[in-house]
């Protein structure tokens, strides 16, 4: 019982990470740094809520989120690929942009700097807290599916092979006729859509958008991508691990075993540990962050 | 020289509406609780008193004082800082602008070395709410309605202001049910803890899962997650600051309302009527500054016996028979 | 322009006319034309930077020409893409491998035209086809191995198979033999001749004229971005090709200068002393595998060998740029094994690095700044750089080495390759040093500059310094050295006195066919 | 020479143009007239002494974080951690201030504050530097991760040990406060601008001198341009990496003095929010040149203060959006402009 509740909560917390991390994996595998994940998530949450509000259907909300995330990611990809802008700079700027723009449009549309009105979402009324309640939320399934599909895409399809080549040795890919830039645009769009679904999960589960409601989850997803060494399954494990740590913190909070600040540090500290090679060297895709000639 | 403000404050007649500047707290407009309360009061003053409202939402920390100053420099008659965080800035600024009236919602009163409270400057109204009294009542209500004898509390940022809610709530629970359990949790230790509904929902779900059947939140937007959890589990939540019934119709047992709107309106009115004076304004149960909601929306959720018991407690508190703690 | 029409009546497979291509300020191709008949092996030769690779990359679809016309099998294909080139049966093996190291051989094979079954990669089919192909051509590979784990020779095989797998009927090979051992080269020739017999067309870029004579049917010579001669192999000589390449008569039988006649015994006082050096390389452990030697004052020790046999690692280790596993080095009797790059410089070591673009110069620094790189601490007063001294130094070096433009404040990036190399040489020769490590000192430099640099090296030697010379150009090694070591597989296969060395003697050692000492 | 001036100015112009278009659209969408909003923005910043003082105050912090990012970029390092380095610098300086005896003159305390703030930033910045030099851990990721870790840690230390009840800040510091500009120029009355501004300008000059006139600067820039060539030139590249990261952190850390000792006289939770990330923008727009950084800091400070000034009319998030737009436009146009310039000089 306790164990099941723990698992259910871990899974709920992990879903946005799973979406965003699978987006992080494909983006970084193609050679585009995934610093914009936080922005895509927040943008997805906003577009998802707005589309759901005006259409009255959470499914349309999902479409809106996906469109918003893709648009943001393509803006990023356009500047990084076509204009060779520094990916780190633009990635961070996209996050700033989304933080400001969501609040601006919140004011414009709903006369609020903080919250949208209530919107149609997925969490069913009176569905309980257990695993059974999770099963009824289609986004839970989608989140789990995202990882499996990403692994399949990356390792089993021609497009995945091209992504892996583009991120590792783009000239080699070009020399055999792989349109590297196009491969990267598609990867960016996919990563934007996936991260946006993670954001949409947050918004539609809450039945509303709140300013900055992603609260750094995109960066945790990026951490999971790296900690998982750019492999979908390992990244998923990292997501689950980070989510379990948070669950533990929530469950133990009353007991005050360790200050919550220290629990919050776990994913970030582990990422540094991973990068320092303490648990096996994290070697990024060789062409990560580099524009093609 | 800035004589305009002096004139305005002196006022020549009610043909010129009162100019009111409002600087909001970090949660900003639309938080569905605290800031919205202040804004509602201001809007009412605009309608009923013909006041002119200017609104500023500061960004970073150094913008707080700057926002207040911008308004002061625009010869406002009254400048209101919404949130305890404005205490230091307003205290200082008030000395520089003795002709402008200031008010701070939740003004934090400092104490000197001997432990005596230091009063605010003469042109500052310190609006203090006895949230613990209102929280006490909803605590008692929660315990009386609870079947599991387990109730919960979700706070936003772990600061004394919020701990006040928790303390009153717990005392209220104890007063009617000494062996009830109270699980209380906070969403974090930074201001983002007031804006993290995802976290709020998870905290609430884990409490409900542990058998809690009523949760009281004092956590800004984070609490919106608590209502979602209540909807999802079919259990009860208690709103804060404003009547939050509409966040989860049928699942909001009541709300601990904090009359920020009333206080703001009151201040504007006093300025217009030239009866404004600095000092500590206390809004407790006795002043109807805090209270709990009992109306057609939630009447069905609260048995008459419970209602009677809570009303009785309310009377006793007003009469000073029950001391309500404000720290945990 | 083109002089000799290709002899046979065979149809023309490739015809490039008047191709122009520039990279920013660099005009890599300036009206280059080439014509190759079907079923022949065509050699494309020219000095470094002549524009050979660029022309072939245009043919392969990597670059679009700025102007000019491209025809393949009679079809106008001007400005096509790599994908179109591959589809039309044009395959290219690049000078630098175009393999993704983290992927397997099979994955590299199929990249770009992946066979699928039900939407998924059909890896089994690829493995099967690769095995078949590899049986047919005699090029053995393991489809499931990761490319990162392959040796250079194996990687080369994968590259060739990769193009064949795509059905290449026209194969372009850009300096395929530079990194191959003699048996591997023989194997390559066998494969190429087999292809020719099947009527396929091959363009081979190489710097080695003996290879040209051995394998090719026709030849195009490039110089400064232009094609200046088309020759038939059976009707020409190495000397004639060389003349066309450089634009004037060159003595292929190199003049040796006044070769010293020191004996092979270790001189009593050596300036550079290396013992049992073992160095790990990026590709394999023990890239340098127990090398020891010493160089006396006034002596040039030349190292000959096929590239990739540990020369780079040896020099980098001596210069302090690469950690050594074991062994020791001393300069003028002082052990420098544990010293930093900077301290080695102060101890009397000077170093002309093999790659001036990556190491020898900071391209965005000015000529003056580059002329103090590595000696910046000598141009410092307190913590400040002494600008007057830096400019003074620059003026002196620019004068002495005829660096153009003679403006200290011009960034090195804006200089031609030859002048860039002069900066490096000037800097390294003007510092107080005992031992000079000179790696490929004339690579990519024109003939006038080569003579100038060679003269400086001899002067240095005659001034009593010790020089360790590494060059891929055997003629250069023969021209300058007093003693010659041949490096093969990380070891010295032989150390010979100059008098006893010639291309014929050294050849077998370079190929690992013979071992000495 | 003309080319470099063009290369430096053109992206800024492009950015300004794009920002103006985006800004107009946003303002119009909110039903206001762009002209009057921009006038309000100028009036509220350069138009009066107080507003200008606030701009100078914000310029100060942004100069420090901008210099921090710029010096890192000069060495080829991307310091995304200015945010937490700034906070750590302010924290340690605040701590030092609390421990110093009351009434020490500013002249005596200033060096101590500078050292403490620099140390705070240097520790936080140095860690990613060491991790990169020692393990090759990419500094972009480690500095981002350290932002979260350090801010949580400072939060814990403040919340658990140092906070004055009822507030988010430490007790007031009584030892030698740094004077405000208003104590010299009366017109600045009320503005937070203080003498740390001069420290910022001196630091910018010192950084310029260090980068372009000293041996260490020579080696630092060489490392950033071509690490392999620097290594060949006797530079200990790993050493440059970690020392530069520490120096970068120290610069950001000193910026903490502006709020903690120049303005509030206490350390306050999350006082540094946003200034670190904006430092990246400042460095990029200032083209990693200390003078350019000061100018860019002034521009961004104006935008930030201007956002407040127009807040009563349009949401201040307009300014957040515009700042992001400026960063993206500059980042996207710099390589393009450089390429065009090269192509033209070839012709
Ligand atoms: N992608 C590029 N960008 C800029 N310059 C280039 C590029 N490719 C080649 N060049 C320049 O064009 C000129 C011709 O280069 P190319 O590689 O075609 O010469 P090459 O004859 O193949 O020389 P090598 O024998 O050294 O391989 C050189 O000056 C080279 O530096
Ligand atoms: N990045 C650049 N910016 C400006 N000018 C350049 C740049 N690169 C090359 N140049 C100029 O273009 C000219 C051609 O360069 P290239 O390397 O082809 O010279 P080269 O004929 O091979 O000379 P050398 O024999 O000295 O190597 C040079 O004179 C040089 O001044
Ligand atoms: Mg070539
Ligand atoms: Mg040249």
Summary, kept brief:
With 328 residues, chain B is of the alpha/beta class. Chain B is 40% helix and 21% strand. Chain B is globular.
Protein architecture, described:
The complex is a heterotetramer of chains A (293), B (328), C (517) and D (347). With 328 residues, chain B is an alpha/beta fold. Helices cover 40% and strands 21% of the residues of chain B. Chain C is an alpha/beta fold. With 347 residues, chain D is mainly alpha-helical. Helix content of chain D is 76%, strand content 0%. Chain D contains 13 helices and no strands. Chain D is globular. The chains are: A mainly alpha (293), B alpha/beta (328), C alpha/beta (517), D mainly alpha (347). Chains in contact: A-B, A-C, A-D, B-D, C-D. The interface between A and D is large, with 43 and 46 residues. The complex binds adenosine-5'-triphosphate (ATP) (2 copies) and magnesium ion (2 copies). One adenosine-5'-triphosphate binds next to strand 2 and helix 1 of chain C.
Order of helices and strands of chain D: HHHHHHHHHHHHH
Q: What percentage of amino acids of chain D are in beta strands?
A: under 5%
CATH architecture of chain A: Orthogonal Bundle
Describe the largest sheet of chain A: none
Count every beta strand of chain A, where a strand is a DSSP E run of 2 or more residues. Answer: 0
Strand content of chain A: under 5%
* Structural class estimated from helices and strands of chain A: mainly alpha
Please outline the major beta sheet of chain D: none
**Number of helical elements of chain A:** 12
Based on secondary structure, the structural category of chain D is: mainly alpha
- What percent of residues of chain A adopt helix (DSSP H or I)? over 70%
Mean pLDDT metric of chain A: 90
- In terms of per-residue confidence, which ranges of chain A show pLDDT below 50 for 5 or more consecutive residues? none
CATH superfamily of chain A: ABC transporter involved in vitamin B12 uptake, BtuC
- Give the CA-based shape of chain D: globular
Number of strands of chain D: 0
């Amino acid at each position: 019982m306790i164990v099941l509740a723990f698992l259910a909560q871990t899974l709920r917390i992990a879903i946005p990470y799973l979406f965003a991390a699978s987006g992080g994996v494909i983006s970084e595998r193609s050679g585009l740094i995934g610093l914009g994940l936080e922005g895509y998530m927040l943008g997805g949450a906003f577009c998802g809520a707005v589309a759901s509000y005006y259409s009255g259907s959470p499914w349309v909300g999902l479409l809106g989120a996906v469109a918003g995330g893709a648009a943001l990611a393509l803006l990023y990809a356009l500047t990084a690929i076509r204009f060779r802008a520094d990916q780190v700079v633009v990635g961070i700027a996209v996050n700033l942009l989304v933080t400001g723009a969501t609040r601006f449009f919140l004011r414009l549309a709903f006369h609020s700097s903080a919250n949208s009105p209530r919107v149609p979402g997925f969490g069913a009324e009176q569905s309980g807290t257990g695993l059974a309640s999770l099963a009824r939320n289609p986004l839970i399934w989608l989140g789990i599916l995202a990882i499996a599909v990403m692994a399949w895409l990356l390792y089993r399809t021609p497009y995945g092979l091209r992504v892996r080549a583009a991120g590792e040795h783009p000239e080699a890919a070009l020399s055999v006729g792989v349109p590297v830039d196009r491969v990267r645009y598609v990867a960016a769009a996919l990563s934007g859509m996936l991260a946006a679904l993670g954001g949409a999960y947050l918004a539609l589960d809450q039945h509303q958008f709140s300013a900055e409601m992603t609260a750094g989850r995109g960066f945790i997803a990026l951490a999971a991508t790296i900690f998982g060494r750019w492999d979908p399954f390992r990244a998923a494990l990292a997501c689950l691990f980070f989510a379990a740590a948070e669950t533990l913190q929530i469950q133990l909070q009353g007991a005050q075993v360790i200050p919550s600040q220290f629990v919050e540090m776990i994913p970030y500290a582990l990422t540094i540990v991973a990068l320092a090679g303490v648990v096996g060297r994290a070697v990024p895709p060789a062409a990560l962050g580099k524009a093609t000639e | 020289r800035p004589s305009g403000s002096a004139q305005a404050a002196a006022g020549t007649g009610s043909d010129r509406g009162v100019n009111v500047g409002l600087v909001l707290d970090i949660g900003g407009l639309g938080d569905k609780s605290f800031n919205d309360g202040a804004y509602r009061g201001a809007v009412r003053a605009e309608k009923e008193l013909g006041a002119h409202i200017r609104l500023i939402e500061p960004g970073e920390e150094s913008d707080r004082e700057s926002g207040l100053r911008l308004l002061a420099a625009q010869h406002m008659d009254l400048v209101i800082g919404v949130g305890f965080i404005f205490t230091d800035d307003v205290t200082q600024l008030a000395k520089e602008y003795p002709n402008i009236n200031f008010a701070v919602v939740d003004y934090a009163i400092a104490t000197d070395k001997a432990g005596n409270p230091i009063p605010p400057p003469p042109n500052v109204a310190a609006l203090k709410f006895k949230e613990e009294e209102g929280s006490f009542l909803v605590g008692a209500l929660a315990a009386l309605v609870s079947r599991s004898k387990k109730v919960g509390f979700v706070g936003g940022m772990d600061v004394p202001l919020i701990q006040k809610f928790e303390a009153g709530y717990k005392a209220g629970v104890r007063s009617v049910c000494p062996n009830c359990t109270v699980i209380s949790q906070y969403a974090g230790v930074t201001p983002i803890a007031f804006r993290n509904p995802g976290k709020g929902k998870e905290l609430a779900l884990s409490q409900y899962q542990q058998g809690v059947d009523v949760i009281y939140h004092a956590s800004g937007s984070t609490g919106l997650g608590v209502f979602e959890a209540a909807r999802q589990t079919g259990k009860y939540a208690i709103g804060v600051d404003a009547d939050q019934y509409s966040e989860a119709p049928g699942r909001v047992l009541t709300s601990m309302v904090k009359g920020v709107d009333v206080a703001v309106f009151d201040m504007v009115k006093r300025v217009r009527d030239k009866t404004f004076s600095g000092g500590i304004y206390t809004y407790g149960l006795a002043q109807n500054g805090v209270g709990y909601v009992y109306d057609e929306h939630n009447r069905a959720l609260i048995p008459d016996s419970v209602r009677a018991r809570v009303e009785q407690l309310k009377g006793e508190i007003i009469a000073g028979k029950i001391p309500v703690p404000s720290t945990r | 322009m083109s002089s000799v029409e290709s002899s046979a009546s065979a149809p023309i497979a490739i015809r490039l006319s008047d191709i122009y291509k520039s990279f920013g300020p660099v005009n890599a191709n300036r009206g280059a034309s080439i014509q190759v008949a079907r079923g022949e092996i065509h050699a494309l030769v020219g000095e470094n930077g002549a524009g050979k690779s660029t022309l072939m990359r245009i043919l392969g679809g990597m670059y679009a020409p700025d102007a000019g016309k491209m025809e393949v099998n009679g079809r106008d294909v001007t400005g096509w893409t790599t994908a179109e080139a591959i589809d039309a049966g044009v395959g290219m093996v690049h000078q630098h491998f175009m393999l993704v190291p983290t992927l397997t051989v099979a994955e590299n094979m199929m990249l770009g035209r992946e066979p699928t079954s039900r939407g998924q990669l059909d890896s089994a089919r690829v493995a099967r086809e690769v095995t078949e192909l590899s049986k047919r051509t005699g090029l053995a590979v393991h489809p499931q191995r990761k490319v990162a784990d392959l040796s250079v020779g194996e990687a080369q095989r994968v590259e060739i198979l990769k193009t064949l797998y795509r059905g290449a009927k026209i194969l372009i090979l850009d300096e395929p033999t530079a990194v191959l051992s003699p048996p591997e080269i023989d194997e390559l020739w066998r494969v190429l001749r087999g292809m020719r017999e099947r009527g396929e067309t091959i363009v081979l870029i190489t710097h080695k004229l003996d290879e040209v004579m051995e394998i090719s049917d026709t030849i195009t010579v490039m110089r400064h971005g232009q094609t200046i001669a088309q020759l038939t192999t059976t009707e020409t000589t190495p000397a004639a090709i060389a003349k066309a390449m450089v634009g004037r008569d060159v003595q292929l039988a190199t003049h040796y200068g006044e070769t010293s006649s020191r004996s092979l015994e270790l001189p009593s006082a050596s300036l550079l002393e290396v013992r049992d050096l073992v160095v790990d390389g990026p590709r394999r452990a023990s890239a340098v595998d127990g090398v020891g030697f010493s160089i006396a004052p006034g002596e040039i020790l030349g190292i000959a060998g096929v590239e990739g046999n540990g020369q780079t690692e040896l020099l980098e280790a001596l210069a302090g740029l690469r950690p050594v596993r074991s062994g020791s080095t001393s300069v003028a009797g002082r052990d420098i094994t544990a010293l930093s790059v900077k301290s080695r410089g102060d101890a009397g070591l000077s170093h002309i690095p093999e790659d001036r673009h990556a190491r020898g110069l900071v391209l965005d620094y000015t000529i003056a700044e580059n002329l103090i790189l590595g000696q910046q601490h000598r141009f410092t007063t307190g913590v400040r750089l002494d600008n007057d001294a830096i400019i003074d130094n620059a003026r002196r070096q620019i004068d002495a080495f005829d660096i153009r433009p003679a403006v200290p404040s011009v960034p090195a990036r804006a200089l031609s390759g030859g002048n860039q190399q002069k900066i490096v040489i000037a800097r390294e020769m003007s510092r107080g040093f005992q031992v000079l490590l000179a790696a490929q000192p004339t690579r990519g430099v024109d003939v006038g500059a080569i003579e100038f640099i060679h003269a400086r090296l001899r002067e240095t030697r005659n001034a009593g310094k010790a020089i360790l010379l590494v060059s891929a150009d055997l003629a250069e090694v023969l021209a300058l050295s007093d003693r010659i070591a041949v490096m093969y597989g990380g070891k010295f296969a032989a150390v010979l006195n100059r008098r006893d060395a010639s291309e014929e003697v050294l050849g077998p050692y370079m190929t690992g066919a013979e071992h000495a000492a | 020479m003309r080319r470099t001036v063009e290369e430096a100015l053109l992206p800024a112009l492009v950015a300004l143009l794009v920002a103006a278009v985006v800004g107009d659209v946003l303002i119009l969408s909110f039903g206001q007239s762009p002209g009057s909003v921009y006038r309000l923005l100028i009036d509220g910043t350069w138009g009066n002494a107080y507003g200008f003082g606030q701009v100078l105050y914000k310029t100060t912090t942004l100069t420090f974080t901008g210099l921090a990012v710029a010096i890192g970029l000069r060495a080829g390092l991307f310091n995304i951690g200015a945010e937490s380095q700034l906070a750590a610098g302010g924290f340690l300086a605040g701590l030092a201030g609390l421990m110093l005896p009351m009434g020490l003159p500013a002249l005596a305390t200033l060096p101590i504050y500078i050292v403490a703030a620099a140390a705070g930033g240097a520790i936080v910045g140095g860690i990613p530097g060491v991790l990169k030099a020692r393990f090759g851990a990419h500094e972009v990721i480690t500095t981002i991760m350290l932002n979260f870790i350090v801010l949580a840690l400072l939060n814990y230390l403040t919340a658990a040990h140092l906070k004055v009840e009822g507030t988010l800040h430490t007790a007031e510091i009584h030892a030698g406060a740094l004077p405000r500009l208003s104590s010299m120029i009366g017109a600045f009355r009320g503005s937070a601008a203080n003498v740390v501004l001069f420290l910022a300008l001196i630091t910018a000059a010192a950084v310029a001198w260090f980068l372009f006139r000293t041996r260490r600067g020579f080696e630092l820039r060489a490392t950033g341009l071509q690490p392999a060539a620097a290594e060949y030139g006797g530079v200990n590249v790993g050493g440059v990496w970690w020392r530069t990261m520490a120096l970068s952190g120290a610069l950001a850390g000193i910026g903490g003095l502006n709020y903690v000792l120049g303005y509030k006289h206490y350390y306050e939770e999350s006082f540094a929010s946003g200034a670190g990330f904006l430092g990246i923008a400042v460095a990029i727009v200032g083209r990693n040149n200390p003078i350019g950084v000061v100018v860019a800091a002034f521009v961004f400070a104006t935008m930030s203060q201007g956002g407040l000034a127009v807040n009563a009319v349009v949401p201040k998030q307009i300014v957040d959006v515009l700042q992001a737009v400026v960063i993206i436009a500059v980042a996207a146009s710099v390589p393009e402009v450089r390429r065009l310039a090269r192509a033209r000089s070839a012709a």
